[in-house]
């Protein structure tokens, strides 16, 4: 369906040896997914059942101002709850009643588990069932875990969306479901491209409002817009939906291949596909080319953080001319990442999981031009003279599809330009 300027490599990384790391790891809390999810689902509320530390984390991450009315909060677990001296279930239900009385606009309420609530084995699933019976049909209450124990921060979104799938109504209609939270403007761009190709029976998970029609069944095919949705992928397949495998829509090539897979699935003619995509493809190429002048020939090293690492390595090596030395990812889900691995030329070390001390040793020995890592590693590596890119910014910034391709490349070129400018200033 599509033509690629750069042919696929004769041998990709799908079957390359994987270095499996199991040791101390550096992760960011899964609760942070609430920061982009609460903006996406406009009549939902996320109630974290956790500690004051959880509340401070969310306030800091979101930058909530004193006059704002956020759609998330924390039910604080006190010492008496943790010690079992009070019935935490009763207290939680009382807090929910107060919240719903004060905020009648809430249509979906997520009870979000944290490290403290998991440690004391608080049964949020049972609480969600009881509260749903009490408040249905006006409010639907769901639960998921955003705990930072043994997880990466993007798993918060995956757990949230997976919790929604069993409650979706059933449909036998032939339809496409787009899965993954995107900024509204980016989602609108994707829907517009699909509509121009004649694919108009499309739903989105998560929807912007609880009443938006989202259903699933045996004639549903779904396309992921994020690579970290392994649990949601499995939940949709259990409901009978079928995944359309494709590279993730990062950059011109990834977006074109993603759209081409859907065009083939829905029988879109080649001439119509080209008519829809030729102009935005050209714009994306021009935008990427400007940043690629800085990136071409440079080396990049990915620490495992967001699960975006493999599609981003594909984008940087194939569209920006970089060389990937190591591509670490928290989890390697080949049913999702296989198409990107096929396009990533053999050469970089693919690593799954993390032993942070060993990976730091490999990074220091490699001395890459650019290191993509979490916040906790960036400053120490910068102090050692390595140029870094915060992985979390790649999740908070609109980077999908054609119109954002240049912005995506710019996120990687700016640290290198900044470093060059600082060296020039020091030399003067």
Describe the structure.
The chain has 428 residues and is α/β, with parallel strands linked by helices. It folds into 3 domains: 18-25 and 284-427, Rossmann fold (3-Layer(aba) Sandwich); 30-151, Nitrogenase molybdenum iron protein domain (Rossmann fold, 3-Layer(aba) Sandwich); 175-265, Rossmann fold (3-Layer(aba) Sandwich). 46% of the residues lie in helices and 16% in strands. It is built from 17 helices and 14 strands. It has helices spanning 33-40, 52-62, 79-82, 88-102, 115-119, 124-135, 155-164, 184-196, 230-238, 251-265, 270-295, 309-319, 334-343, 356-366, 375-383, 393-396, 405-427, and strands at residues 18-22, 44-50, 72-76, 108-113, 140-145, 175-179, 202-205, 220-224, 242-243, 299-302, 323-329, 349-354, 370-373, 388-390. A 6-stranded parallel sheet has the order 1-12-11-10-13-14, with helices on both faces. Helix 11 packs parallel to helix 17 (405-427) and helix 12 runs parallel beside helix 13. It is globular. It starts with 17 loop residues before the first strand and ends with a helix.
Span between termini: 53 Å
Query: How many separate structural domains?
Result: 3
Q: Helical proportion?
A: 40-55%
Uncertain runs: none
User: Proportion of β residues?
Assistant: 15-25%
Please, what is the average pLDDT? 90
> How much is the radius of gyration in Å?
22 Å
Strand numbers in spatial order across the main sheet: 1-12-11-10-13-14
What global shape is seen? globular
- Number of continuous helical runs: 17
How would a textbook summarize the main sheet?
6 strands, parallel
Organism: Roseovarius tolerans
Keywords: 4Fe-4S, ATP-binding, Bacteriochlorophyll biosynthesis, Chlorophyll biosynthesis, Coiled coil, Iron, Iron-sulfur, Metal-binding, Nucleotide-binding, Oxidoreductase, Photosynthesis
Binding site for [4Fe-4S] cluster: 29, 54, 115
GO molecular function: 4 iron, 4 sulfur cluster binding; ATP binding; metal ion binding; oxidoreductase activity, acting on iron-sulfur proteins as donors; oxidoreductase activity, acting on the CH-CH group of donors, iron-sulfur protein as acceptor
């Amino acid at each position: 369906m599509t033509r690629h300027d750069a042919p696929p490599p004769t041998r990709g990384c799908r079957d390359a040896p994987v270095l499996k790391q199991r040791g101390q790891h550096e992760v960011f809390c899964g609760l942070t997914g609430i920061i982009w999810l609460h903006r996406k689902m406009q009549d939902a509320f996320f109630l974290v059942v956790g500690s004051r530390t959880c509340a401070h984390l969310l306030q800091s991450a979101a930058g909530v101002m004193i006059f704002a009315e956020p759609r998330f909060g924390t039910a604080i677990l006190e010492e008496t709850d943790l010690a079992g001296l009070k019935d935490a279930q009763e207290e939680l239900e009382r807090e929910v009643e107060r919240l719903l009385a004060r905020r009648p606009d809430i249509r979906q309420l997520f009870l979000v588990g944290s490290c403290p609530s998991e440690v004391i084995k608080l049964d949020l699933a049972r609480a969600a069932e009881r509260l749903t019976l009490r408040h249905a049909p006006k409010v639907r209450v769901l639960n998921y875990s955003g705990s930072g124990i043994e997880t990466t921060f993007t798993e918060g979104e995956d757990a949230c969306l997976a919790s929604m799938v069993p409650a979706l109504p059933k449909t036998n209609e032939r339809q496409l479901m787009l899965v993954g939270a995107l900024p509204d403007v980016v989602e609108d761009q994707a829907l517009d491209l699909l509509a121009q190709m004649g694919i108009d029976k499309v739903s989105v998970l998560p929807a912007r409002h609880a009443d938006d029609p989202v259903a699933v069944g045996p004639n549903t095919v779904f396309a992921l817009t994020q690579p970290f949705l392994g649990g949601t992928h499995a939940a949709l397949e259990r409901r009978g939906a079928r995944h359309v495998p494709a590279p993730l829509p990062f950059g011109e090539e990834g977006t074109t291949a993603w759209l081409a897979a859907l065009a083939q699935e829905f029988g879109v003619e080649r001439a119509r596909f080209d008519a829809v995509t030729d102009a935005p493809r050209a714009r994306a190429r021009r935008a990427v080319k400007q940043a690629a002048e800085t990136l071409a020939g440079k080396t990049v090293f990915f620490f495992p953080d967001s699960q975006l690492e493999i599609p981003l390595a594909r984008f940087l090596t194939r569209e920006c001319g970089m060389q990937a030395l190591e591509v670490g990812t928290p989890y390697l889900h080949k049913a999702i990442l296989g198409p990107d691995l096929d396009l990533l030329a053999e050469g970089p070390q693919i690593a799954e999981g993390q032993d942070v001390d060993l990976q730091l040793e490999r990074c220091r020995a490699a001395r890459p031009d650019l290191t993509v890592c979490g916040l906790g590693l960036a400053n120490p590596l910068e102090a050692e003279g390595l140029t870094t890119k915060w992985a979390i910014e790649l999740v908070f910034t609109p980077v999908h599809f054609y119109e954002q391709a240049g912005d995506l490349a710019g996120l990687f070129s700016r640290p290198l330009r900044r470093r060059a400018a600082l060296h020039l200033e020091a030399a003067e």
